[in-house]
Amino acid sequence: MTQGSLRGVLTLVLPNGLIIHNCQLLEVGTRRWVGLPALRFQMADGSVQYRPMLEFKTQRAHRKFRQAAQDAVDHFLRLRGEL
């Protein structure tokens, strides 16, 4: 799937059993990252905004999650021969 920077939609299963559906695999140039699900809504002026559905209490926790998610996606893509 390719639509702008969107490369695909995925589900993450965390070691603690939490399942996060509708994560996005995004890529711009050589940079690739996993985006968490967000609620899309339209403002009165017609602009589109997104509100995160999940947040991390600390930046450190967010960085650790982001790196682990990216490592998992990279591993999966390598197994499929797509990376």
Could you characterize what this model shows?
This protein is an alpha+beta fold and 83 residues long. The strands form two sheets. It has a three-stranded antiparallel beta sheet with strand order 1-2-3, covered by helices on one side. The chain has one helix and five strands. The mean pLDDT is 92. The chain is 25% helix and 40% strand. The two termini are 15 Å apart. The chain has one domain (6-79). It is globular and about 45 Å long.
How much strand? 35-45%
Poorly predicted ranges: none
Radius of gyration: 14 Å
- Topology as H/E string? EEEEEH
Q: What is the number of helices?
A: 1
Strand arrangement in the largest pleated sheet: 1-2-3
Count of all domains: 1
Q: What would you call the structural class?
A: alpha+beta
N-C termini distance: 15 Å
Number of strands: 5
Morphology call:
globular
Mean pLDDT: 92
Q: What profile does the largest beta sheet have?
A: 3 strands, antiparallel
Give the % helix.
25-40%
Oligomerization state of this entry? Answer: single chain
